[in-house]
């Protein structure tokens, strides 16, 4: 043990000596290249050196308002993906497509990038009337200066509220109201997004899982039939999924599965 420790200490000292030698050689090379003897102090001019800085002006009301507005904008940009997932049809479409791929047992075909891109474009297709209302009632009047920012926010949230209220289940809404200890409003539009968004997400997940269960049923039947045939033939060591996958793909292609699934998913949304 002592000999090993001595070897380790010697190797550490050797590495330190090598580093010091390298630094000394680098100093000599730089001195030779600049024509200045090593060890002399060289004055450094800072008059023309560029300086970088980041300051937030908070001395006046305008500076403070601009800083707060910048922070709000950056926060909205950071939360944009979450808002896209939570207040649109993206969640239901993506979950159903993932269930379809899992039922086919094709591992990574189609890949996640394709499923996400398809879900994103289908979301834009479904939400296009809502986005048009937001542009007409909020963005354009705000750019023209006919309404204030607060009025534009209220006008932009209203179409999203209508879309989510048309999709969510009353049971989910009552559950969130009961948990939050809030009173039932006569007009559902009076509820805040804190109540509507969780209720909407719960309903979207429930609807997506119901559709996923229905998608699984025919493929489970194929797995059971293939497993029974293999057992009757004495091929118990052969995995049933290996044999059933081509039959699943054949059934899915003959039934035009992607068209059926996407069309039926789009029909499940209730537009305002």
Work out the number of β strands: 0
**Overall morphology:** elongated
Low-pLDDT sequence parts: 15-58
Tally of separate helices: 9
Could you tell me the mean pLDDT?
75
SSE string, helix = H, strand = E?
A: HHHHHHHHH
Fraction in beta strands: under 5%
Which sheet architecture does the biggest sheet show?
Answer: none
Tell me the Rg in angstroms. 32 Å
Notes on the structure:
The chain is mostly helical and 272 residues long. The protein has a domain of 141 residues. The protein contains nine helices and no strands. The longest helix is centred in the C-terminal third of the chain and has 40 residues. It starts with a helix and ends in a 5-residue tail after the last helix.
Keywords:
single chain, 272 residues, mainly alpha, 9 helices
């Amino acid at each position: 043990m002592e000999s090993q420790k001595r070897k380790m200490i010697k190797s550490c000292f050797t590495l330190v000596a090598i580093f010091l030698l390298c630094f000394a050689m680098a100093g000599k090379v730089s001195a030779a290249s600049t024509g200045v003897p090593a060890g002399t102090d060289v004055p450094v001019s800072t008059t023309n050196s560029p300086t970088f800085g980041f300051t937030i002006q908070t001395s006046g009301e305008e500076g403070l308002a601009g800083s707060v507005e910048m922070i709000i904008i950056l926060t909205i940009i950071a939360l944009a993906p979450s808002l896209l997932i939570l207040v649109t049809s993206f969640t239901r479409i993506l979950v159903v497509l993932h269930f379809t791929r899992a039922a086919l047992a094709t591992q990574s075909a189609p890949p996640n990038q394709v499923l996400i891109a398809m879900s994103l474009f289908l979301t834009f297709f479904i939400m296009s009337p809502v986005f048009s209302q937001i542009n007409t009632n909020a963005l354009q009047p705000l750019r023209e200066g006919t309404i204030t920012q607060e009025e534009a926010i209220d006008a932009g949230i209203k179409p999203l509220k209508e879309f989510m209220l048309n999709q969510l289940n009353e049971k989910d809404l009552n559950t969130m109201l009961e948990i939050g200890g809030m009173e039932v409003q006569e007009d559902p539009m009076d509820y805040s997004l804190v109540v509507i968004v969780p209720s909407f997400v719960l309903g979207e997940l429930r609807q997506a899982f119901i559709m996923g269960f229905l998608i699984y049923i025919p493929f489970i039947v194929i797995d059971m039939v293939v497993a029974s045939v293999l057992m009757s033939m004495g091929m118990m060591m052969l995995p049933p999924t290996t044999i059933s996958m081509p039959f699943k793909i054949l059934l899915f292609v003959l039934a035009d599965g992607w068209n059926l699934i996407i069309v039926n998913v789009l029909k499940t949304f209730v537009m305002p």
